[in-house]
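Quick one: structure tokens for this chain, please?
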Amino acid sequence: MNKKIELLTPQNSVLLMIDYQPQMAFGVVNIDRQLLKNNATALAKSAKLFQVPTILTSVETESFSGYIFPELLNVFPKNEIIERTSMNSWDSQSVRKAVEATGRKKLILAGLWTEVCINMCAFSAMQDDYELYVVEDACGGTSDTAHTTSMARMQQAGVVPVCWQQVLLEWQRDWARKESYDGVMQIVKDHSGAYGMGVDYAYTMIHKQKPRSEWNGKMVK
């Protein structure tokens, strides 16, 4: 069977989040930076909800890039941050060992920059027989051209492009899975824009739940 058409599940996936650091984000042009942070945070929350092993890497933190976005650190406060010097995360033995230890072959990448750290890691991991998925709307490049051409190059090599919400819903797959239903809905309401607004509308107007807005700790009616 073509492994590319096998659905992502919480049991077959591992997530590698690369260099979500301020100095790297400053150079991003292809996507609004606040939207980028929103998407990366939503992806991280999704992985935590479904207990998907998640590896965080950083590069030259104190000499150039700054610390990883606090929103991601809040999602994974106990995760070790693997610090590197190489632009290619796969050059790091610590990264390779962390991924290998999960025993999973579907490697999901997201991070900065698309044309450098994502490209290099994807191609190197593929040489070690990993199936690569890149979360396009959680990646940033230094120009529109840099991002789109690097995504095209990866797709030509067999990398599968996905978006964060697609990954979340593919992990959920069935609304009958009630153990993760509420968590998925919370992520959607907090990060999915119009979809989240629609969920709020359905809850309040159709199912007649009270609004969840709060002011000074009191429910607004």
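Residues 33-49 form the longest helix (17 residues).
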